[in-house]
Amino acid sequence: MSFTERELWAIIHGLGLGTLFLLAFAGGLAGLYSLKERLLTPDGVAERTLRLKVGSMGMAIVAWLTVISGTFIVYPWYRAAPGDVIDRAVQSEELAAYPRYWLLAGEGTAEWHRFGMEWKEHVAWIAPLLATAVAFAVLYYGATLVRRGDVRRGAIVFFTLAFVAAGVAGMFGAFITKVAPIY
Amino acid sequence: MQDVQTKPNGPVAAAFIAAGVGSLVLGITVVLNEVNDGISGFLAFDANFGIGSGVGPLSGKAILATLAFVISWVVLHVALRGKEVAFGKAMTISLVLVGLGFALTFPPIFEAIVHLFPAAE
Q1: pTM (2 decimals)?
Q2: How far does the CA of residue A1 sit from the closest CA of chain B (Å)?
């Protein structure tokens, strides 16, 4: 029972960081949504603020780590081109070591690359940008964010959009890995 | 305008708009990569600048989007620090930019744009 280096990185990128991202999003969103002056005592605001800082910063850091590891470590294995001796038009065992080309060789699998991967590899990069802006807003205002309903609502929208971007990327990543794994 | 006892919201508006700028630049590079072979070649930062072996044009798209985010954030932060701005307007601008970024990374949309440039097909 063991993993290859590529499988291990795919797990770190998708499962490890993806799970952390989900946890940070859930915590951060709950914190932002419930940060209302009328619902909390001053002690409650202070306690929520700490959790919110950890959640929003965590989400931003994890989002950056996920796109960087995905783009610069895992993606080159996905897009590596086979040598001339391997027929790129047939989904052979040899071609399976080159997921992008294996997917494109099949009529029923080509869309996983043309639509799924093409969207995933790009939209994922929006997530850390949005998550970083939210983390900055939370760190900048700290406990006084409770008195900035406009910023808090904006942060909730950005936080959710970051999750949508990461969700699209994560979902297609899981599907594509299932159809054409990186060995 | 909200509570004047809190810090001015300019720096936060700057961060949000900068995230929108980064998203839009990402979307634009996705389209340009498909439209023009020369630009596609330039975006291969792995081959041109040794950044990210084997990543191809995605390396350039990701790095340019990140640079656009950071640079626009710094510029907007300097311009808006200490200022209270209409946050609703800043949010609207940000969401339009982010929405365009999302749209331009969506394959059916960027492929439709590519089809407007016959030479690129």
Answers
A1: 0.94
A2: 29
To the nearest 10°, report the CA torsion of B58, A23, A55, A37: 130
**φ, ψ for residue A159, nearest 5 deg:** -60, -45
Which sequence spans correspond to the domains of chain A? 5-179
The whole-angstrom distance between residue A136's C-alpha and the CA centroid of its chain comes to: 19
Task: Quote the longest CA-to-CA distance of chain B.
Answer: 58
Nearest to A72 among B55, B105, B108 (CB): B55
Determine the 3-state secondary structure of A167 from DSSP.
helix
Pick from A129, A140, A182 the residue to mutate for testing the B interface (most B CBs within 10 Å): A129
Burial of A20 (0-12, 13-18, 19+ CB in 10 A): middle
In sequence order, what DSSP letters do the residues of A31-81 get, joined into one string? HHHH--GGG--HHHHHHHHHHHHHHHHHHHHHHHHHHHHIIIIIHHHHHPP
Domain boundary assignment for chain B? 21-120
Whether this model's ipTM surpasses 0.90 comes out as yes
Q: How far is A123 from chain B (nearest CA, A)?
A: 6
Burial class (CB in 10 A: 0-12, 13-18, 19+), A120: buried
Contact B58 A151 (CB under 8 A): no
Distance (Å, rounded) from C-alpha B19 to C-alpha A157? 13
Across the interface, whether the CB atoms of B26 and A165 are under 8 A apart is answered: no
pLDDT, tens digit, 9 for 90 and up, residues A20-62: 988 888 888 888 988 887 787 888 888 888 889 998 999 999 9
